[in-house]
Amino acid sequence: MAFVQFVVNGLLVGALFAAVAVGFALIWGVVDIINLAHGEMMMLGGYVSYYTLTLVTGAQGTSPNASPLLAIATVPVAMAVLFAVGYALQRGLVSQVTGTDLFLTLLVTFGLSILIQQLTIQAVTANPRTISVTFADPSLTVVGIVMEKLKLIAFVGALALTAGMFGFLKTTRTGRAIRAVAQNPEAAALVGIDVEHARATTFGLSSAIAAGAGAFIAMILSIDPQMGLIYTLKSFVIVVFGGIGSVPGALVGGLLLGTVEELTAGLVSSKWTLAVSFSLLIVLLVVKPSGLFGEGVEE
Fold it and tell me: Which residue segments constitute the domains of the chain, with CATH numbers given?
């Protein structure tokens, strides 16, 4: 029963990892850069949610209290703000290095990550903050498995974010344009697609879904200006697990990573979670370099 409890906990947390990683995979697949500032978009989303609640409730201190509905209502606010931030960053900065040397794009996004982190520390200090969501009964028990209601809400929200992104890419005109740019930007331009706008929209969508996940993370864990790096690393692992550019792959990879980390923490020690996760990454790269849902590319 303890084993099953760890698996359930891992799936609940893993959905949030997946939501963050979906945006990371989207940028990698469409813009063809590894965005090392992706975790900072998630962190900023958490802060937008936190300060929106602080403003609405007039709360003082580092943990504003809110009802579940009010807390959830801050998620689209965070997504809208970070969409605008992501779009502007792509247009003003990232587009200048898109299509150039991979190492240069890594340097630019890494520098952007450090800049956002330091500006956030100067603006709000490095103190951890969290959103306190109030329930009459914070947990429920199903066949002996205890589940926190807040984690269930975050789980459903993360799945909705991932499914919404997948549906958007598959069914909308903008989504089809983004997929066309991912497949062949030159051909997309020839048929009238504004490639730079599509890439900026992709960056904005990626930042928005990361911000949504960040808002949920602020409710169940805590946020601080230096939290972005670990989520960027986890996103990288998840995307390689699932296959570069695959939204379903990112979902499965996130659920898998969350389960592995919870099992490791519960059965061994939390100190070993990253070591085990990256060990699995190495094994997967050796066995199936294209990832679980990725396709190999021939010369």
Answer: 2-287 (1.10.3470)
